[in-house]
Structure formats: structure tokens, C-alpha cells
Amino acid sequence: MDEGPALIFTFQTQQTKCVRDRTGKIVEGGEDYIETAFWVFAMRRDPTILDPLLAWQVMEIGEIQTQKMMF
Question: pLDDT tens digits for 36-66?
């Protein structure tokens, strides 16, 4: 599957980030910590798979950047 064009999508989400340790103490972010995350998603169609719904395969997905929302 090293041939053919790839579709690359970029998008952003708003998400909360609250990481806790085993005792329940917040160690990163917070319950009200909202951040904007920027993502990239790459996919390619595999010509050897005949079913058009199954032929698309994810090549890569990754978070590019996050930034805290300011209110």
C-alpha cells in the first residue's frame, strides 16, 4: 500500500484535560481545564480491497498542537 494518493485532513477540537493519579489527585490539567487541540488525519484507499466501505485505511493520526482556552 505504498502507492497512490493520500487524503490528509486537519481539524481542531475543544477538549477537557484532567489526569489523576491512583489516589484521585489531579496531576495534570483540571476538571475545568479546556484546551484546543489541532489534529492531522491521513488515509489512503487500498486498491486490492474491492469493498468501497472497507478499502479506506488510516495511515496516520496525530495531535499537532494544543493550547489552553482563555476565557
Answer: 999 999 999 988 889 988 899 999 999 988 8
Question: Residue 30's closest CA among 15, 51, 13?
Answer: 15
Angle at 39 between CA 9 and CA 7, to 5 degrees: 20
Shortest CA distance to 70 belongs to which of 33, 31, 15? Answer: 33
Out of 2-6, 18-22, 34-38, 44-48, pick the least confident. 2-6
* Cell numbers placing 70: 482563555
With residues binned 3-state (H G I as helix, E B as strand, rest as coil), the percentages for the chain, rounded to 5, are 0, 70, 30
Give the residue among 54, 53, 62, 57 at the shortest CA–CA distance from 43: 57
CA–CA separation, 28 and 20 (whole Å): 7
Whole-prediction pTM? 0.63
